[in-house]
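Recall from the previous lesson that a structure prediction takes nothing but the amino acid sequence as input. Here we apply that procedure to Pimeloyl-ACP methyl ester carboxylesterase from Shimia sagamensis. The sequence below is the only information supplied.
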Amino acid sequence: MTSSQTPIFFCHGVPGGPDDATLLQTGDLPVTAPNLFDFATGEPLPHLFSMYDNACAEAGAGGMHVVGFSIGAMAALRLAAARPDTVSRVTVISPAAPLSLGNFLPEMAGAPVFKMAMQRSGVLRVLTAVQGLLARKAPGVLINQLFAKSGAQERSLFADAQFVAALTKGMHSSFGTHRSGYLDYLAAYVTDWSAEVRQVQAPVEIWHGEKDTWAPVAMAEAIKNLVSVPCSLQVVPDGEHYSTLKAVRIG
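The prediction returns the following tokens.
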């Protein structure tokens, strides 16, 4: 099996859901895109590893191409570090790097949420409960709130029915049906997981939008500087967060 035929294991954004994968151009490649939040315990990574191992067994492949979007990059990179024998390649798109690598929060639209996650604030649970209500009753209001700091390119995606459908499903999962898993992933993200990035053995490809307001491009540069394997960084001119995901073609 050539690298261009390697099946994809997709790690969606946080917030987000499996339908994030529909925004990625993958051609005819087989894609496994599980719901990362669908687990019963407070430990996201064992569940992630189990889903990945099952996907490998079902694919019968010699390796998988792991793709992570946004905070899903944390899942992708930590998975690659834990499964060096079966992860053949890693692509991270609009990646949110470990917060320990720099003073990124002032440039991140979600900074208040991450600060609450670091403080283990009960206010965050109340906030997500309110967001869950909005996701059910007024998803347009919630989407406008989440994209308040986005630019014209990102907002132009609202005319794309596939994008709106993926986004709406991801909001329902994150703030509603799988809110506990979403909160556990946030808690995992705000810890220092930089040591695991250094352990990645598969080659890494990074795509990041020049004008991303969710994750500044400095995060992509920090990941590139941290890994010890061959790593390429493609900065998309005028690209933002989701628009960069839409622009990337795998395979």
